[in-house]
Every structure is written in C-alpha cells, then in structure tokens.
C-alpha cells in the first residue's frame, strides 16, 4: 500500500459496510420510534358528516344527516318482484355487496331569507339507540336552533320522517307551523287504519302529528309552501306522498323524499317493487315520471335515502336512470 494514500482510502470494506450499517440503523431509529408511537395511538373511529350546505339562487340549502343503518338481504326490500339473483347481480355490477345495504336519512333545511323551512324530521329519540335520530344535533352543528325553524314540511308520514316532530313530549320546533298533503294526513290519522297493516303507522301519527293538527296547513298537487317552494303529488310510496320543487333566481331543485329509496336498485330498475311502497304500481309510475322530469330538465335533486349528502343528478339509461352525485355544480 502506498504511504501517500489518505486514511479514507485505507478503510477496509468490512469497516465501511459496518459503518454504513450503523448509520442506517441510526437513521431508521426515529422512524421506528414514530411507528411505535403511532401504533400506540387508538383509532379515532368514524366521524360522520353532520351536514352539507350550498346555495340555490338566494336560497341556502342545508342537508342534515339524521344517521344511517345497515340492512341485510337487500332482495327482501328492493326488487321483491325480481328475486334474489337479479338483485345480487345488479349490486355486483355496481361494485356493491350483494348481501347488505346502507340506508341513510337526510332531512333538508331551506333558508329562503324569510322562512327557515325544514323538510322532514328524522327518526327522533326512538332512533338514537341505533345511532340515528341525529337531526337536532346536525341542526346545531349547522349553526341553527330548533326555535329558528318557522315551517316544518312533512313529505309523508312514515316513522322515519315524523319521529323527530317531538322531543321529550314537547314540539321539537316550538315556533314552527306545519305543512303536509291533505290526503296523507286524512289517511294516517283515520281510525280505519286500526286492524290493518298500517296500524303501527297510524299510532305513530296519532302520537306525533295529531297533537299538532291545529298548526297544520294542508295542501294538494301544486300547492305552495312559500314563494319558490311548490308541492307536487307523487303518490304510491304512501297515499299522499309529495315531492317539492324549489325555484330561486332561475335555478331549480327537487326534494324527492322517498320516490326512490336506493341509488342503484330504485333508480336503475324503477319498475322493481319496494317492500315499503304501499301502492307498488303507483310508486313505480311515480318514480318514472319524477325522474324523467329531473333527467330531462337536468335538475339536481335531494333524495331522503340517497348516499349522504344525498344531492345528485340522474341521466337516463336503457331501462332506468344512473345516479350522478353532485360534486361542484352547485358551487359555481
């Protein structure tokens, strides 16, 4: 070895590799410590979005998340006239599990500048054990109070829409008046429902709606809630089920309530029967009429059981309609 070689040159390969290994360990040590610390931190868990908000002309629209639940055997709820195999196949074609589905609940709050209008009230206290009944919590998160609501519109009187009308035995929205279809109120409030499959629904209406009857305004097809909000008959899911069209500064939107109950099974196959539709043939005809209008006019809509935040569009397919979630169309 030449005496003029530098000390670095005289390092053996073994020494060099050993030094490199020690350096690598030293560099990796902080990462190992970080990973260890992260592994020791418990997961936060799911944090559902409480509300979503956008403007429609001069209207401010807030969709509230009342919660959701997982259902089993979707073919027992949707496509009951089609059968399990067809339901599973359609779900699989849309990258969805065939044996389960998620059902969400989405009341809508509209600030017109004059009135604060709430469409449906969620499941209320009876749904809280299962993580639902969160409308009042979502309302508070959105910056409003129950006392500020001036009108409550009930699209129809199934329990997941009227359960939140009362809280601790008192009206949940103490300063509100109420609007619903005359046909819907007359059907559910009648004692003729006793001894029929609608008996439990009747009892819910007697408990939650009838005590407020003197504060109700009853409307029919084409009836106005306030300027810019018009009711449209959409019977079938229930005898007086209504949808509502919003219009402000040339922009429109439809609150479709339960016209469609699943973003794939009800929309792509509008003729498939749904267990909760009381008049199944009328409900199918209504689905096609309402979503033909929405698709043709390229309107956004809010569906009570659509994937939260429940706002989207539809385009026509060969048989039914394809759900297109809203992204930024309403922000521009």
Structure description:
The chain has two domains: 7-39; 51-331, Ribonuclease Z/Hydroxyacylglutathione hydrolase-like (Metallo-beta-lactamase, Chain A, 4-Layer Sandwich). By secondary structure, the protein is α+β, with helices and mostly antiparallel strands. The radius of gyration is 28 Å and the shape is globular. It has a seven-stranded mixed β-sheet with strand order 1-2-5-6-7-10-11. The chain contains seven helices and 18 strands.
Report the portion of residues in β strands.
25-35%
pLDDT averaged residue by residue = 91
* CATH-defined topology of the largest domain: Metallo-beta-lactamase, Chain A
- Number of E-type strands: 18
Report the sheet with the most strands, covering strand number, pairing sense and barrel closure: 7 strands, mixed
**Chain oligomer state:** single chain
Q: How far is it from the N-terminal to the C-terminal residue, by CA? A: 76 Å
Shape: globular
Structural class: alpha+beta
- Strand order, largest beta sheet: 1-2-5-6-7-10-11
Give unreliable regions as ranges: 7-11, 13-27
Can you name the CATH architecture of the largest domain?
4-Layer Sandwich
Give a brief rundown of this model.
The chain is an alpha+beta fold. It has helices spanning 13-39, 84-93, 135-141, 159-162, 182-189, 199-208, 280-297; strands spanning 51-56, 59-64, 67-72, 100-105, 108-111, 116-119, 151-153, 166-167, 170-171, 177-181, 216-219, 224-226, 229-233, 242-248, 251-257, 301-303, 311-316, 321-325.
